[in-house]
Amino acid sequence: MIYFDNSATTKPKKEVVDTFTKVATEYYGNPSSIHSIGLQAEKLLMQSRKQIATLLGVKDHEIIFTSGGTEGNNMVLKGVASQFQGRGKHIITSAIEHPSVSNACEQLKRDGFEITYLPVDKNGRIHVEDVKKAIRPDTILVSVMHINNEVGTIQPIEEIGKLLANYPRILFHVDHVQGAGKIPLAFHDIPIDFATLSSHKFHGLKGTGAIYIRDGVKLDPLLAGGNQERNIRSGTENVAGIVAMAKALRISMEKLDEKVANMQKIIAYLRNELALIDDVEIHTPIEYTAPHILNFSVLGYKAEVLVHAIANHEVYVSTTSACSSKRNEPCKTLLAMGVDEEHASSSIRISLSFDNTMQEAKEAVEAIKTSIEKLKLAMRR
Fold first, then answer.
1. Which of 40, 69, 113, 192 is most exposed, with the fewest beta carbons within 10 Å of its own?
2. Which of the two residues, 231 and 268, has the higher pLDDT score?
3. In the β-sheet with 293-298, what is the strand arrangement from edge to edge?
4. According to the model, what pLDDT value does residue 225 have?
C-alpha cells in the first residue's frame, strides 16, 4: 500500500500513539483540578506548550491549544472581527484559502463585514502589491495561507509581513497548517500576529491543534466557558492529544533539512515522469512550491474516476482538498490560477510525508500509467 494523501492527513507515528495512550490512561486528570492528579496533567500541559513554543521559536504563553485547523482559523477570523469591529469591518484574504477561512469570511459578510479576495497569478501566488492596493482605513486583518493545500504554492508571507509592519493597526494571520513541520516560519521576525497549526498534518492525532497569538494581541474568545487557555479557548484541554502533538512536531522537525531534501528529490522524479505521459499537465509550479505537494491533470478523465482506478493498485491519492473532494467540484485553486474547468475537474493531488520513498514513487508512476491506459481502452469500447 502506497499512501500519497498526506495533505489530507498523515499516519500517526507509533511513538506518538504510544505517548497518547500512556498519558490518557495514566495522567488522565483535569489540568484545572488542584489535586495531585490534576497537577500532574497540568505539568504535562505546560511542558508540551514549552516544547511546541521552543520548536516554533516563540514564547510559551503565545501558544493556545485548539481542536485543529478549522477551529483555529475560525477563532482568529471571528475573534478579530468581534474584538476590532469598532476600528473597521474590512478583511483581506486570498481567492484560494482553505474553506475554514473562506467560509468563515462569508459568514462575517452576513454580519456586515467586507471581504476583499485577492487574485493569484498563474502559479497560484498572490502579489504583495495587490495586498497594498487592497488596504483601506477600515482594514483590520489580512489572512493568507502559508502553503496552498491543493497545488502547494508557497505564498510571500515574509514580504506581506514586512508590508504590514507599516500598518500597525492591521493584524496578520497565517494558516500554517500545511507548512508546520516542513517549512518553518519565523513568526517574530516576519512579523505574524496569528498562525494556525493542526496536529494530524505532521503525524499527530486528529482533534488537536494550536494557534500562535503574538504577545500583546487581543482576541475575543469564540468559545465561552471555564476560561482555559488564557481565557481565549475555554474547554478542558485534550492533554493526551497535546502531549502527543508536541512529540509529533519534535519528530517531524528532527533533521528537517535532510528530510526535506529527500522529499524534493521524490517530487522532482514524480513531476518528470508524469510529465512524459500523454494528456498529463502538471499544475504545481516549479518555483515557490512546497516539497510535498504535486498537482496534475489527465485531460479527458474525471478526477474521482482516476483516483478510484489508481486506488485499485493500492496507491492512494486525492482530487482537491479533503474538505472538498466528496463534492466533486473543480479545484478552486486551479480555477483561480486561470486553468480551464475541464483541467480543474480532472486534477489529482499527490502529497508526500517524510516516510515516503523513491521506490514508492516509482511504483506509483507505473500504477498511474496503467490506470490511464486501462481507462483509455475502456473508453474505446
1. 40
2. 268
3. 280-282, 293-298, 347-351
4. 87
DSSP states of 319-364 as a string?
A: SS-TTTGGGTPPPHHHHHTT--HHHHTTEEEEE--TT--HHHHHHH
Asked if residue 285 lies in contact with residue 153, where contact means CB atoms within 8 angstroms, the answer is yes
Task: Give CA–CA dist 224/215, Å, rounded.
Answer: 21
Task: Report pTM.
Answer: 0.94
Q: Which residue has the higher pLDDT, 227 or 210?
A: 210
CA-CA distance, 171 to 167, in Å (whole number)? 8
Identity at 6, one-letter amino acid code: N
pLDDT digits (tens, 9 = 90+) for 266-287: 999 999 999 999 889 999 999 9
φ, ψ (nearest 5 deg) of residue 350: -100, 130
| DSSP letter (8 states) at residue 62 | G
Q: What local confidence, expressed as pLDDT, does residue 47 receive?
A: 98
List the catalytic residue out of 223, 260, 282, 323: 323
CA 116/CA 131 separation, integer angstroms: 9
DSSP string, 143-179: EEESB-TTT-BBP-HHHHHHHHTT-TTSEEEEE-TTT
pLDDT of residue 37: 87
Gap between the Cα atoms of 240 and 207, Å rounded: 11
How far is it, in rounded angstroms, from Cα 184 to Cα 78?
A: 26
Neighbours of 278 (CB within 10 A): 10
Asked about 323 being catalytic, the answer comes back as: yes
Q: Does the structure show a pLDDT above 70 at 112?
A: yes
Instruction: Summarize the confidence of residues 358-365 as an average pLDDT.
Output: 98
Contacts of 35 (CB under 8 A, 6+ apart): 29
For the chain, report the end-to-end CA distance as a whole number of angstroms. Answer: 30
Residue 135: all three cell numbers together? 488596504
Cell 474553506, residue?
99
